[in-house]
Design goal:
Blueprint (H helix, E strand, L loop, with lengths): L5 H14 L9 H8 L3 H13 L3 E4 L5 E4 L8 H8 L7 H4 L13 H17 L7
Antiparallel strand pairs: 1-2
Helix pairs in contact: 1-3, 1-4, 4-6
Length: 132
């Protein structure tokens, strides 16, 4: 029923992988993909979004790669999800205003919006350090 995207899974695994390394240690996408068992190309795309959000830093050059931008205790699952997917959206009307034909008479909207907020709050309360 509800399922996160593969890109979110890749991003979450990448952040946890980097969190398990020594602080400041730089890891290449190739090494990370091989260790985790993911596609290097797809992992690189997730890492680019994490970089744009300030969750990871990229280091250029021969010894280049990625490292965490902050501490695992400071990064939340919500940070990762929002960097890759945006805020949680359970129904079309959450992200596509006006696209639903019953938006004006829907009796489920307020409950579903509340559920979205609860999901986001749970993810915001879950730090990467809890996954180590």
């Amino acid at each position: 029923m509800l399922q996160v995207s593969r890109k979110f899974e890749y991003g979450l695994h990448a952040v946890v992988y980097l969190a398990r390394r020594e602080p400041g240690e730089v890891v290449t996408v190739k090494e990370m993909a091989a260790d985790i068992g993911f596609s290097q190309e797809f992992l690189a795309k997730a890492l680019q979004q994490l970089k744009k959000a300030g969750i990871v830093l990229s280091v250029q050059g021969v010894k280049g790669g990625y490292r965490l931008a902050g501490l695992p205790e400071e990064i939340t699952i919500s940070d990762i999800a929002r960097a890759i997917e945006g805020p949680p959206r359970l129904m079309r009307c959450s992200s596509e205003r006006g696209k639903c034909e019953i938006v004006s008479s829907c009796s489920n909207r307020s409950t579903m919006f509340k559920l979205e907020k609860n999901i986001d709050a749970l993810m915001a309360d879950t730090k990467v350090s809890a996954l180590l």
